[in-house]
Amino acid sequence: MSNKAVISTPDAPEAIGPYSQAVKAGNTVYLSGQIPLQPGTMEMVEGDISDQARQVFSNLQAVAIASGGTLADVVKVNISLIDLADFAAVNAVMASFFATPYPARACVQVAALPRGAAIEVEAIMAL
C-alpha cells in the first residue's frame, strides 16, 4: 500500500504536461511549479511581473488548500525568473502571501519558462 496521493483542484491551472498539481507523500506535499496561468481559461495573466507573481502565488495557495494545508505550511520555495531584475518586485508579492517565519527559498534566473512566462514557483509543504 502506498502512502502517496495525487492532489488536484479546479481552483488552479491544470497540468500542461505529464505531472500532477501536487503529490502528498506522508506529511510532505510537493507542489509542482506554477506559472501565471488563470484557472479555467488556462490563459496567461496580462500585466507586469507583480501581476504574474500574484497569479502564481494564488495558484500555489489553491493547491496548498486542496492538499489540506495553507501557504503557512510551506517550508521551501523555489522561484525561477527569466530576469533577476524582477527579484525585488517578486519579493514584495511573496511577502503579501507569506508571514514570518518565512519558508526557506531559492531564486534563480533561467533562460526560458513554459508558455513564455516570466516566473515559475514550486514549493514543498509539511503538514
Topology of this protein?
Blueprint: E1 4-7, E2 22-25, E3 28-34, H1 49-66, E4 74-81, H2 87-97, E5 104-109, E6 119-126
Parallel strand pairs: 4-5
Antiparallel strand pairs: 1-2, 2-3, 3-6, 4-6
Helix pairs in contact: 1-2
Please give a quick description of this structure:
The chain has about 130 residues and is an alpha+beta fold. The chain has helices spanning about 50-65, 85-95, and strands spanning about 5, 20-25, 30-35, 75-80, 105-110, 120-125.
Name the poorly predicted regions.
none
Number of domains: 1
Tally the helices: what do you get?
Answer: 2
The CATH architecture name reads: 2-Layer Sandwich
Largest sheet, if any? 6 strands, mixed
CATH topology, which one? Answer: 60s Ribosomal Protein L30, Chain: A
Shape: globular
Rg value? 14 Å
Order of helices and strands: EEEHEHEE
- Beta-strand percentage range: 25-35%
Overview of the molecule:
It is built from two helices and six strands, in the order E-E-E-H-E-H-E-E. It has 127 residues and is an alpha+beta fold. The chain has a single domain (4-126), classed as RutC-like (60s Ribosomal Protein L30, Chain: A), CATH 3.30.1330. A six-stranded mixed β-sheet has the order 1-2-3-6-4-5, with helices on one face. The radius of gyration is 14 Å and the shape is globular. The chain starts with a strand and ends with a strand. The model has no long low-confidence stretch (mean pLDDT 97).
